[in-house]
Amino acid sequence: MRVLVTGGAGFIGSHVCAALRAAGHEVVALDCLHPAAHGRDRIPDGSFLLGDVRDADVTASAMRGMDAVVHHAAMVGMGVDLDDAPEYVSCNDLGTAVLLAAMARARVRRLVLASSMVVYGEGAYACDEHGPTRPEPRRTDDLRERMFEPRCPTCEGPLRPGLVDEDDRLDPRSVYAATKLAQEHLSAAWARETGSAAVALRYHNVYGPGMPRDTPYAGVAAIFRSSLERGEPAAVFEDGGQRRDFVHAADVARANVAALGHLASGARTGLRPYNVASGEPRTVGEMATALSAELGGPAPVVTHRFRAGDVRHIVASPRRAADELSFTASVPFAEGMKEFATAPLRS
After folding, report:
1. How does DSSP classify residue 268?
2. Whole-number pLDDT of residue 217
3. Contact, 159 vs 150, CB < 8 A?
4. Which of 53, 167, 231, 330 has the highest Cβ tally under 10 A?
């Protein structure tokens, strides 16, 4: 197929472009090289269009002759503060709306959307007394007292974290999370109105070669590695016990290839979400310790700092992707951290 990859010069997008080409697809990358994600990066190899998905003329031109779109163009991360909100909404939601309108006009009927675990908010929990529950946002006073675990909203007792699946309640708790959920809703509306098929890949914590370094929009793995390379310890927020699923960019790229194949094989119309996760959850503290060991750096420092909008535990079930896309992550945590410790990062 001829595939347009928006955000194709970015960290994940570049891995996806390479994997799609290796699978035999003709790939065109569209990217505006937004400064939040790109520094002094050179123009990538292969078919590349410099342009912004928010520009209707650019997007309409890029859509000519395409069989499918893989949409990664977005601002990512928690951002610095609410001053970032207009740019997040513009890049992520306006950009998606312009793209979908161009797809409708060009009658391109297949979409793979890069979504995120952040649409869930907190993960799945259960109370011993009240059963499965979803906690309210953690109280600032509790966080200041270093009480980081969510409480049962009924009895305020302790909760046991579990796995989220794709049918769990969606509860975005940051501007970025809200824009990612809006992307899913816009894509679902497009699919219904045009009789098209879309897959939303809800990425968990992606890491790997090519992550941007030294930017507040980077992932935690790159932030920790940059600290270690300066001879400084990784500064771990809260108590380091936050559970996450760290999934390698090579596996994420394979998930995109699998999703595109699923669409090509006659997937049903509408939008279908899938968790893209390793199935091997770790704590943030464990990840920091693993990177420190690989680089021979100082041990992590637990700061007990916290950020509004952060969630405590978010770990997903990868079963649906395995059952329906035949995708299972293949890079083990230890192997991935060993490679990432010395992998090239973006300026």
Report:
1. P
2. 62
3. yes
4. 53
